Amino acid sequence: MVGRWCVALGSLMVVGLAWGDTPSTRTKIPGQGDAPEVSRPNFDDRLLPTWKIQGRWMTSRTDAVDDALEQAQQVVREYLQSRRPPIEWVPPIEYIQTHMLAENPWHEEARQFPDGMMYRVSLHVRVTPAILRDCAQIDQKRRAEQRMLELGKVVLGLMAVFGAVALYSRWRGQAKPTLFGPTRGPGS
Predict the structure, then answer these.
(1) DSSP 3-state assignment of 41?
(2) Distance of alpha carbon 10 from its chain centroid, rounded?
(3) Domain span including residue 77
(4) 158 lies in a domain?
(5) Cis link prior to 105 (omega < 30° from 0)?
(6) Total structural domains in the chain?
(7) Dist CA 91 CA 127 (whole Å)
(8) Which residues does 100 contact at the CB level (< 8 Å), separation at least 6?
(9) In this structure, is residue 178 part of a structural domain?
(10) Which DSSP string corresponds to 161-177?
(11) What is the pLDDT of residues 93-129, one digit of tens each?
(12) What is d(CA 131, CA 102) in angstroms, rounded to the nearest whole number?
C-alpha cells in the first residue's frame, strides 16, 4: 500500500514539474470585479545608467571587440546585482550586443605601436526600462525553475524513503503498514 502512495506522489511530482511552467489562469468570481494587478517595479529612464566602456589595446579587431564586450558584461553584471532586489541573471555577451548597445555600437581606434598595429574599441552601453524588465523576468523564471528542481529532489528523496520502508516491511514479513486500516490477506 505504501508503494502505491509513493507512485501516486511521484505522479503528482511529474505533473507539477511538467505543468509548472505554464501561466496560470484565474477564474473570475461574479460580483468580485477584476483580479488585482501585480505591482511591477517602476523603471524610470532618468535613473537608469549608461556607460562608455573602453576596451584594452589588442592585436586584432575581433579581440578588441570581444574584450570590450566582456568588460561591458562585467559592468552590467555588477549593476544588476547591486539593485534591490538583486538580479542574479547575467546577460550573455550576445544579449548585450543585440539589446544593450546604443545606436552607434562602437568606436574603433587603431594605433601603430613598436610591437605592431594595435586596436581598441569603445562601447556605449545603456539599460532601458524594457531591458531591465526583461532581465528581471528572466531572473525570476530561472529562480522558479531552480526552486522546482530543488523541490523535485526533496520529493524524490521522500519517495525513496517511503519505498525503502515498504520494501523493508515486506521483507521482514511484518504486518503491512496501511493508511486505511488492516488489509485482508489471500486466505481471509
Answers:
(1) coil
(2) 24
(3) 43-140
(4) no
(5) no
(6) 1
(7) 12
(8) 72, 76, 91, 125, 126, 127, 131
(9) no
(10) HHHHHHHHHHHHT-PPP
(11) 999 999 998 877 778 999 998 989 999 999 999 998 9
(12) 13
Residue 159 is assigned to a structural domain of this protein: no
**Number of Cβ within a 10 Å radius of residue 96:** 21
* Predicted local distance difference test score (pLDDT) of residue 152: 93
Q: Which residue has the cell 548597445?
A: 101
pTM, two decimal places: 0.60
E-state strands within 57-176: 101-113, 116-126
Residue 185, helix vs strand vs coil: coil
Q: Which three cell numbers stand for residue 108?
A: 574603433
Q: Which amino acid is at 24?
A: S
**Cα separation of 127 and 48, whole Å?**
6
Strand order through the sheet with 101-113: 50-54, 116-126, 101-113
DSSP-assigned letter for residue 50 = E
Asked if residue 27 is part of any domain, the answer here is: no
